Fold each of these.
Amino acid sequence: MTSTLPPRAVVVTRPTEYEELLHHHATRAMAAFFLSTRGRRVEDVEEAHRVVRGAVDLVLGAIPLAWRRALVARSDLDRFLFEPEDVVVTVGQDGLVANVAKYVKGQIVIGINPSPAMYDGVLARHRPRDTADLVRAATRETGARRGIEERTMVEAALPDGQRLLALNEVYLGHRTHQSSRYVLSYGEASERHSSSGIVVATGTGATGWARSIHGSRRSSAPLPAPTAESLVFFVREAFPSVKTGTTLVDGTVAHGAALHVASEMNEGGVVFGDGIEEDHLDLPYGQTVDVRAANDRLRLLAA
């Protein structure tokens, strides 16, 4: 049944550095003193704050008057109820798109970059002044499908049904610098490792952590394209010993296939996504986890 409610734009933001400084130091003067001890000026942080908040105001002002709207902080995403017909607009760095991706279910996401001088704009590639045209193009009522990219996400799933989604990559291993011990299996191959953990990346994440690993080790495993359905995995600093190997250390995870990891860590084993360590699954000794391309996709308005 088609909804009779007007469309809703959900604008997602995160605190600026200036707002976080005021939260921790209470006053501008104290924030200025703190920054000065690190060779920085509060005026520069204030200017960046004005740019971001100005962009948020432009975006909110560009939403059609007949539409419903919601302004959501990144920290509230796990408690916000998205509606199927929502158009989701992030205002900030590219990472904000990744933060949103794990909470939406098919809604179109528009990334707004407040300033190309501040953020790369790999995912948040649109200008605030274009918001009105973008949100109209993203509504299902118009039937427009202007340059929507289907971005693959990666899923880590435990046998009890717990799962974790990420847009860029997941990390599996010890939460500290201790050795990560586990048995890694893919296809017919299986190997026991002592390493610095495993990184499994999507095509979106291939421009970040995975790219750094790939370049530093000159890996032959190809990095997936931004919209590829496959994943790539890298074992970090695998250590050879009489019990552990270094053969199964990178490769492509085809769509529909999965990496299987059996933890041999007595404590401290975790899996987390997109660098958010607080949101993790525990991997105690004997716990298994499968990592594969998720059925969920990020629908990003790219053009």
Amino acid sequence: MRLLNRRAPAQTPERSRRLGRHGAPWQEVFGEPSLARPTSQACTESQFHEPAYAYWCGQFRELPRTHRKQWEFCYILQALSVRGKLSPEALGLGFGVGEEPLTALFAARGVEVTATDLGLEEATDAGWVSTAEHARVLEDLNRRGICPPDQFAALVRFETVDMHSIPASLRDYDFTWSACALEHLGSVASGQDFILQSLRTLRPGGVAVHTTEFNVDDEGETLDNTSTVLFRRRDLESILKEATAFGYRCRVNWSTGAGPLDAYVDLPPYSSDRHLKLQIAAYVTTSIGLIFDKVGD
């Protein structure tokens, strides 16, 4: 166990200020992040106590835990739900899907999904097969029986895609997502490039939601050019600036929370609960979600 040595964020009412240009404002939001009204934001303790958290856990058939990886699924689902994207005949595109339950849950709601991941040989070399984080067959994406099999087969297709190079054929989706995948692309620069590439897959009015690792210390160095990289605020701000210049709306809350668990740092061997922040190498990291809304015509 370790306690994070930091000042608690000021408890001010939510407010925002404009930072962006070109008709697509990047807004910074202050106060505790809310799952009910998700922006780009970090995983914080208060979000686990909101009704939306228990609801989405029930939808993908898990009991709620204070674990950041479970939060990532709830966050992605909530961000898409409040934007009206989880409706029949919507088109969704997932990257690095592994065996996560999101594909099946989207299909259960009538969404037509293109699920993508590395090829088997590349995934084996990267270690994803041995840790059951890679889908070998389409049925692996519906292991929990969330979607009726016939409906799943009709709505979901699987493609092998390298996230370093998204095919030009993947275009005009209502939403795209990835959960804890882009930090494994080898470098901070590669993760940044992937996010910007993913935005090109959207039609006007579409939304991209990605979760990744967030180094809570923006002042020093970070983990880069390795199998898992950690993004600092400055690294993410670079993406936000480019995205807004290309016509995407972004709202971001940089708070890392003020609750007791927000100050708790999980150390190896990591817990299955009380796992919001953890230490990787010399750095303290948590999960962060990023939302990019493409301006409609």
